[in-house]
Amino acid sequence: MKLLVAALDAELSAFPDEIPGFDRLVTGPGKLQATYALTRALDAGDYDEIVVVGTAGAIDPRIDYGVYEISAAVQHDVTDIDGIVGQHVSLPQRLETAGGDAVIATGDHFVDDVEAVGVIRPLGAGLVDMETYAYIWVASHFEVPIRVFKAVSDRAQDDAITDWRTAVTACSAQLYSHLSETHPH
Questions:
Q1: Side-chain-side CA neighbours of residue 59 (13 Å)
Q2: Residue 57: count of CB within 10 angstroms of its CB
């Protein structure tokens, strides 16, 4: 059995309520809710793969709208005792997945301004979200393979939240189509 994970119901709006071979989990937004909900699900069930779907802001102008598989995640809202952005005092700076083509920066706030993007870009990420680092971290502790697919919903600039609200339904449809190709059911 696989576990289909999203942060928000809206990100699953184009998905059928039941998909053969998948259980479904909506964690809520942010790293703490993502960690808590995924830990509880993995503690209660036995899964051979976690498949995360969701939206992300593109902070690299070379990244176009579409669906990307995440290869690694960093945190953009942490600093270590020396003040180094992106380095947590005790967690790995970067978490890898088994595949993918994009690096994502995770933080507990919705990125929607040029200054924030300027701080995040040097961390090597092209996308931003609020949960992926946490999902990968939890999956690694349970030794369950994880794949993360993100649809670009906005450019993480001014009015990005308005763009996200407009785009989330279309992003969900793109994600379901992509899941149907990568995990036929």
A1: 27
A2: 29
* Distance (Å, whole) CA 150 – CA 52: 8
CA dist 180 → 54, 144, 185 (Å) = 15, 21, 7
d(CA 9, CA 94) in angstroms, rounded, equals 28
Tokens of 51: 């498949």
pTM of the model: 0.93
Contact criterion met (CB below 8 Å) for 83 and 41? no
**108 to 3, 31, 140: CA distances (angstroms):** 23, 6, 20
Give the type of residue at 164: W
Spatial separation of the C-alpha atoms in residues 96 and 108, rounded to whole Å: 20
Q: How confident is the prediction along the chain (185 residues), in pLDDT tens digits per residue?
A: 999 999 999 999 999 999 999 999 999 999 999 999 999 999 999 999 999 999 999 999 899 999 999 999 999 998 889 888 888 888 889 999 999 999 999 999 887 778 888 888 999 999 999 999 999 999 999 999 999 999 999 877 776 667 778 889 999 999 999 999 998 87
Backbone Cα Rg of the chain: 15
**Three-state secondary structure call for residue 167:** helix
Rounded distance between C-alpha atoms, residue 96 and residue 31, angstroms: 17
